[in-house]
Specification:
Shape: elongated
Structural class: alpha+beta
Distance between the termini: 50 Å
Strand content: 15-25%
Strand order of the largest sheet: 1-5-6-11-10-9-7-8
CATH topology of the largest domain: BirA Bifunctional Protein, domain 2
Radius of gyration: 28 Å
Bound molecules: zinc ion
CATH superfamily of the largest domain: Bira Bifunctional Protein, Domain 2
Oligomer: single chain
CATH class of the largest domain: Alpha Beta
Largest sheet: 8 strands, mixed
Number of helices: 15
Length: 419
């Protein structure tokens, strides 16, 4: 039996991999526009980092982690998300002591043990950003503008921004109590997960997708009515900032995020056409996390987006920019084949993609190969042509053929490919 990839993982094959490169390039480009610099952290970290940084009672930590013991006895976990590792690195390398605003972006694989379904994988890939050091609403609005522009650039221009505030340690406990009271009478109507959440993290009941839970939460008090003055001002500031930057949004008091460290701003971008898995990008402010992980108290905000889901939402709209097809050098005879290999190398060094036939084959077979490789030109090099210092250049699209001097080929094609 041949060995298959593990359940819940996928191979990104060409030409699909080109769309991935393109999306990552889009993300890098926008990161640079907004002043973000890339950080790469390990794919596995101490299990304790996620237990403390994500929260033990969250679904991610409670049910979805790939945890293992190293041969040396350390408790390690394949990272299920990117923020905890970035924050750990910021603290470990003392980067927050520099003060000011520090903007970090990252991308790479994350691992979650989930039931595989369309658009959901056990090895998923995310792009994400984290901005440290600014407590005010201006950076929230800018972060959301980044997200909105990035989504539009990858062809998801219809995503709806849903915004909420999850309060702060001063006002959230009061709301948590009010929510528990409101839910108390309807506890039997909650799903198993929400019955547990009622005790551990009742806010999470608000974003449960189970129909009976949605019915129960329809008329519960909303946190927006119970925010402290500072949280209310912050939310107003974010709203004003978004209007100023031309980023449309709606307020949705049921956006709570699954993670415990979020404060104030919480948001999701919702795209059409994805069914239940319709959140394409999500994030929020986490002013408490850096201190929670042992660093200096530092305000922060960020977002993450799954590449698989982004590409699904982008659909045909994601135009993999076509790489210009290569010059395929078809040769007849050993001397011509050697000259062809030399020419191909000279072309590549001049920035022109080039392909050759490695074995002696008929011209017909080589032209078929040129077509299979989407060659833009075929350069036909035979013994007679070579003796004259000539080659035949065929424009594969137009079907036209002209004789060119071998000595001029590199300059000529470099000019055409640069155009
Ligand atoms: Zn508050
Ligand atoms: Zn539920």
């Amino acid at each position: 039996m041949p060995i298959a990839a593990p359940r819940g993982t996928q191979d990104i094959l060409p030409p699909e991999s080109r769309r991935w490169q393109w999306l990552e390039e889009c993300f890098r480009h926008h990161g640079a526009l907004y002043g973000y610099r890339e950080m790469r952290t390990p794919i596995f970290e101490s299990t304790e980092l996620f237990a403390r940084g994500v929260g033990e009672e969250t679904d991610i930590v409670a049910k979805q982690m790939y945890s293992f013991q190293s041969r040396g006895g350390d408790a390690l976990t394949l990272r299920p998300e990117g923020t905890a590792g970035v924050v750990r690195a910021m603290i470990q390398h003392n980067l927050l002591a520099q003060g000011g605003v520090q903007k970090i972006c990252y991308f790479g694989p994350m691992f979650r043990y989930e039931r595989p379904q369309k658009g959901r994988y056990r090895q998923l890939h995310q792009v994400g950003v984290e901005a440290f050091g600014s407590p005010g609403p201006a950076i929230d609005a800018e972060t959301l503008a980044f997200a909105s522009d990035f989504l539009a650039a990858v062809g998801i221009s219809d995503a709806r921004l849903e915004l909420n505030s999850v309060g702060c340690p001063a006002c959230r406990p009061r709301y948590r109590d009010a929510l528990r009271n409101a839910l108390a009478g309807a506890r039997t109507g909650l799903c198993t997960d929400c019955t547990r959440r009622y005790d551990t993290n009742p806010l999470r009941v608000l974003d449960c997708k189970v129909e009976s839970c949605r019915t129960v939460t329809r008329d519960v008090p909303v946190i927006l009515d119970m925010l402290c003055a500072e949280c209310r001002d912050h939310l107003r500031g974010v709203e004003a900032g978004l209007r100023a930057l031309g980023v449309p949004f709606v307020i949705n008091p049921h956006i709570v995020r699954g993670l415990d460290y979020y404060t104030r701003t919480a948001f999701e971008f919702i795209a059409g056409g994805l069914g239940a898995q319709n959140t394409v990008l999500a994030g929020g402010r986490y002013d408490g996390l850096v201190a929670e992980l042992g660093g200096p108290a530092t305000p922060a905000i960020g977002f993450a987006a799954g590449i698989e889901r982004l590409l699904m939402a982008a659909g045909e709209a994601a135009p993999a920019p076509p790489m210009a097809g290569p010059v395929f050098i078809a040769t007849l005879g050993d001397a011509a084949r050697a000259e062809g290999a030399r020419l191909a190398q000279a072309l590549r060094r001049a920035g022109v993609p080039a392909a050759i036939s490695y074995e002696a084959r008929s011209l017909k077979a080589q032209m078929k190969e040129a077509a299979r490789q989407d060659a833009r030109y075929a350069l036909i090099l035979g013994e007679d042509e070579l003796a004259r210092g000539d080659a035949m250049l065929r424009d594969m699209g137009a079907g036209e053929q002209t004789a060119v001097a071998v000595a001029d080929i590199v300059t000529l094609l470099a000019r055409r490919y640069a155009a």
